[in-house]
Amino acid sequence: MLKLGVVGIGGYASHVARGVFDAAKAGQAVQFVAACDPRADQQPKHHETLLKAGVPVLADFDQLLGRDINAIWLPVPIDLHRPFTERALAAGKAVIVEKPAAGTVDDLDAMITARDRSGRPVAVGFQNLFDSNAWAVKRHILQGLIGTVRSASVFGCWPRGESYYTRAAWAGRASRAGTWVLDSPLNNAMAHFVNLALFLLGDALPDSAIPETVDAELFRAYDIEMYDTCAVRTRLGSGVPLFIALTHACRETLEPIVAIHGTKGSLRFLHETNRFEFTDACGEVIQSLQAPFDPVPQIISQFSRKLAGDPSAEIASLENARSHTLLVNAISEAASVAEVPATKIERISSPTTGPRRAIMGIEDVLDDCVRNGELPSTISRNWLTGMTGRFQLKNYRSFSGPCTDHWVNGETQSLIAAGR
Fold first, then answer.
1. Could you list the residue range(s) of the whole structural domain that residue 166 is in?
2. Exposed (0-12), middle (13-18) or buried (19+): which is 70, by Cβ within 10 Å?
3. Residue 272 belongs to a domain with what CATH number?
4. Residue 260 lies in a domain
5. N or C: which end of the chain has fewer CB within 10 A?
6. Has residue 300 been placed in a domain?
7. Which phi and psi (to 5°) does residue 171 adopt?
8. Do 34 and 5 touch, CB atoms closer than 8 A?
9. Is 308 domain-assigned?
10. d(Cα 373, Cα 233) in Å, to the nearest integer?
11. DSSP code of 308?
């Protein structure tokens, strides 16, 4: 029996609660024992729902750790991931921590050490990696279904409004309360797809690919510390180039696509339909696998197997998450964030997102970048003359902080940063 305690009752935590209740009703061996939230009074609806279901809501994390539970689910702010994970492991509890696992590889490595010391499993909420179909897809890639992998990309345009960056104290921030969070499209809303690409490109079934070099250009249209738009070219340890182009400052919604191209065909993961599609060299679909739309039952099922000692359980591990965090850290160290000129920003009023900003033509720009494997400044889109940063990741062990270099007379500057 998976006896769960959940930290938080609002936001994604409320979705976790519903998922746990539904899984129990469906016959899964899971019980929602208790939750904790020091600000439960600010979530009266969710608080009442839990109480009616017989789930106590505690005010203190230590009280939760004292309950008869064997696992903690942590849908909490990024800066709390490491300390809460360490405290839970020290109390003998297994952990499901939300993505990203941490803001830096330093924190993530400390979490790995705490996990190994405790002997309890830790999973990360990169939901695609709890789906057996994703593991089946990787087996096909390793077995050569699309031939030798030549290139890969992650592309997505997800509009977000002004309220998106005011919803939490860490939103759009580089750090919170002295802890790096590095919030961005690549490290939050669309982190799932970048992590999925790294997993599928790993050299062995459970492993994720490790980036070796990074070239990045980062932009912001919103009044935030970090970037809302990025174009990144990274070369993985296998030599495969992975291109990433993501934005929240756009007019159109273009659902994320993960694409992997080989000598015999291609694989695409289409978020719009949550489907994996293999195509041959002529573009004909040769195999299609449907991923689940609700990840919570799969997370519960696979993590229960892991907790029971099943070595074949399919989860997102801290090691999988480390590859993603390594990339996020390298990108921030490589390039400073360029301000998009006000003349290139369109102000939009939307009934779904509220007021929002869109970089004019950014959808076409990023699409061209992905198709050509080139950064925006290379494509020469006049104002796209932001800092081009390069970073070597050999022997990288610690995050030193975001790049703070600036434009010089509005001209693109090339930066070379030595990895530590």
1. 133-291+317-417
2. middle
3. 3.30.360.10
4. yes
5. N
6. no
7. -65, 125
8. yes
9. no
10. 7
11. T
CA distances from 86 to 21, 77, 93 (A): 27, 15, 10
Do the domain assignments include residue 296?
no
Amino acid, single-letter form, for residue 295? P
Which residue is associated with the tokens 């290379």? Answer: 378
pLDDT in tens, the chain (420 residues): 899 999 999 888 888 888 888 888 888 889 999 999 988 888 899 999 999 989 999 999 999 999 999 999 999 999 999 999 999 999 999 999 999 999 999 999 999 999 999 999 999 999 999 999 999 999 999 999 999 999 999 999 999 999 999 999 999 999 999 999 999 999 999 999 999 999 999 999 999 999 999 999 999 999 999 999 999 999 999 999 999 999 999 999 999 999 999 999 999 999 999 999 999 999 999 999 999 888 899 999 999 999 999 999 999 999 999 999 999 999 999 999 999 999 999 999 988 889 999 999 999 999 999 999 999 988 866 667 656 788 999 889 999 999 976 443 334 344 433 332
Place of tokens 């230590």: 62
Domain harbouring 8, CATH code? 3.40.50.720
Q: In the structure encoding, which two tokens stand for residue 70, read together?
A: 């064997």
Point out the domain boundary residue: 128, 153, 179: 128
Q: DSSP class of residue 148?
A: S
CA distance 348 to 362: 14
Q: Pick from 101, 128, 155: which residue ends a domain?
A: 128
